[in-house]
Amino acid sequence: MRQYELIDRVLSYKPDADQDILKKAYVFGTKMHGRQLRASGDPYFSHPIEVAGILADLKLDTTSVVCALLHDTIEDTSATIHDINVNFGTEVAKLVDGVTKLTLLESNLEGSKQAENFRKLLLASASDIRILLIKLADRLHNMRTLGYIKDQDKRKRISIETLDIYAPLAGRIGMQEIKEELEDLSFSYIEPKIRDIITERLKVSKKKKSKIVQLIDKELQRVLIDNSIAFEVSGRVKKPYSVWKKLEVQQKSLEQLSDIFGFRVCVNSITECYQVLGILHGEWRAIPGRFKDYISTPKKNGYQSIHTTLMGPENQRVEVQIRTYKMNDMCERGLAAHWVYKDQDDAGNDYLASIEWINDLVDILNRDGATEEFLENTKLELFHDQIYAFTPKGTLVALPRNATALDFAYAVHTDLGNFCSSVRINGANKPRRTVLENGDEVEIVKSKTPVALESLQEFVKTGKAKSAIIRSLREKKSHNHRLIGKAIIKSVFSSHRKKPTRDILERSFGPLNVVSLVTLYELVGGGSASGSDVYDLVFPNNKRKIRKKNYIEENISIPIHGLYSDLPAKFLKDTFLVPGDKIVGIIIPDKGITIFPVESEKLLKYEKFPESWIKLTWKKEIEFTFVARIIVKLINEVGVLNSITSTIADYGGNISNLILNEKDSDFYNLIIDINVNDNKHISGIVKSLEGLPVLENVKRFIG
């Protein structure tokens, strides 16, 4: 494309455009790219020109077109962002810099790197949405010329990313034509054989149905002319990728699809849209369930149109879309049309309000960062059909199809989702996981404290809800680790008559690479360090009392009489036996001897094999401590953990692990693993705990 051709395109929709800056950018780009060539063998500058041409076809502002001409200069030439700023101004430099940074991130598309690319794209787009438009135009031209890349795997990899990210993004900002072209180009490289087959079948089908299509077109025009409507009718054939998706979803053959061909009626006003609808429904029978009014209730991307399917001439199903010319322009060019209408009326600003979904995505990525989890959650925001539900005050909330009442709560506000205890749908009490239908009125019942969300994670559909639940569970886990870590440290220090004050504990920060008490407690509560480690670090010259070593089955022989020296022996899995407990051995072929508690229900299956049973007794002198487990139900009060850990420490027990499970708002279930000498030791600890008023009950768990 020559310089004057590009300028003429811009002047055709913006007569007062700054021609000088367009010429200057054209000359600057040509000079900087010099003799660089693309994979096709064309001069490299042909790519920026074509990207600028795409933006001009979209009738974008002059600044965007200038940026398109310059968007590769920083990455691929000796030009700097300072050069762009000096020659073309701050606004152009900011856009060029944004697009350049995104391009540099695309060298690695795997895993979390791909998520980071997407995150950066959305962050940059949130600051200036034109960066997204330029990036989409850049990707579109690259896809148009992708065939010149010889590496087949690279072509497929780029196509998958385009299909996963860029095509849905184009759809979500209403740029339907670019979305469909990106999808179809990607499809041609991902599944070339399938696309070729569908393309050929579409040609055959179009040829077979050409007469009926012409008849339907003629009849539509006749009916509208008879009713004195000023209109324009156009026919369309679905793209191969769109047909393929319908075949996949509906499990039908190509011949069974009724909406491969469709018609669009454009008129001047919204009133005429509904007038045309009445005329067509009066002339032909409407197909039940195939009517959608996206004018009164636009899609989340701002799309407006009436969709209906008629039983038309010769009993042929006819899919018809009815919209104004302005709606059609918004449909084809989406967000790009904003710059045309923003100075005429509020249509452009209304459209910008309709894409507030991008703020939800930015909220997710600001909180969650660059992770594969983020990428999956944001993809959920891009791929969806919609339903509409209402708050009791009548506020409309758009959600993806199959969204739940909990999705609705998170869509209104994150805190409303985190504190949602129950819901009322159309006045009836329903579970939070209830799937919503179009037109449902949803009332969220809010609790005073955060609710349990673990079981609901798999039921929500929106990226915002999934991200919020994961974040809430992560924060809850960290909170529990802090409580557990603090209790373990308290127990270890108390057993040696020491107080773990802030000043003392800060001595361990450097060696453990932590910066606060919170992170120290999390480290210990999560098992990455022990309370004993902390004690030894803060009192390096005042070692802990000499205690028995902990028994480790893999490294120490079992201190039990009656075992056969030629057979391996081990304790039954998930049991917590200590010296003094009544035990029995079972010889299991090819496995050796397994040591059971005598009260274990698992012994029942060996009753028919008395020859397998061995009488066992503990040795009298044992130099090791064993882990005993107790389960405590405690009242949810401040300081309760301190009471428990202090009691255990006073009785000579050493806590090795705590597991805190919330049962309800009044009680907690606490699992405590304690290193003890024998069953008398643990029995004494249990009895001492039973005397605490903050405990509902306590019992030992053997297995």
What's the short version?
With 703 residues, the protein is an alpha+beta fold. The chain is built from 29 helices and 22 strands. The strands form 6 sheets. Strands 1, 2, 3, 4, 5 and 6 form a 6-stranded mixed beta sheet that branches.
From the 3D structure, determine the CATH topology of the largest domain. Answer: Hypothetical protein af1432
Number of domains: 5
Instruction: Give the full name of the CATH homologous superfamily of the largest domain.
Output: Hypothetical protein af1432
Assign the CATH architecture of the largest domain: Orthogonal Bundle
Note the gap between the termini.
79 Å
The number of E-state strands comes to: 22
- The radius of gyration over CA amounts to 35 Å
Structural class computed from helices and strand pairing: alpha+beta
CATH top level of the largest domain?
Mainly Alpha
Name the helicity range. 40-55%
The stretches of 5 or more residues where confidence is low (pLDDT under 50) are 107-112, 345-354
| Count, helices | 29
Percent of residues in β-strands: 15-25%
- Note the overall shape: elongated
Specify the biggest β-sheet.
6 strands, mixed
Q: Could you tell me the mean pLDDT? A: 82
Give structural notes:
The protein has 703 residues and is an alpha+beta fold. It has 5 domains: 3-192, Hypothetical protein af1432; 209-350, Beta Polymerase, domain 2 (2-Layer Sandwich), CATH 3.30.460.10; 357-473, Roll (Ubiquitin-like (UB roll)), CATH 3.10.20; 491-535 and 623-701, Alpha-Beta Plaits (2-Layer Sandwich); 549-618, no CATH class. The strands form 6 sheets. Strands 1, 2, 3, 4, 5 and 6 form a 6-stranded mixed beta sheet that branches. Strands 12, 19, 20, 21 and 22 form a 5-stranded mixed beta sheet that branches. Strand 7 and strand 8 form a beta hairpin. Helix 6 packs antiparallel against helix 7, helix 9 packs parallel to helix 11 and helix 23 (463-494) crosses helix 27 (531-538). Mean pLDDT is 82; it is low at 107-112 and 345-354.
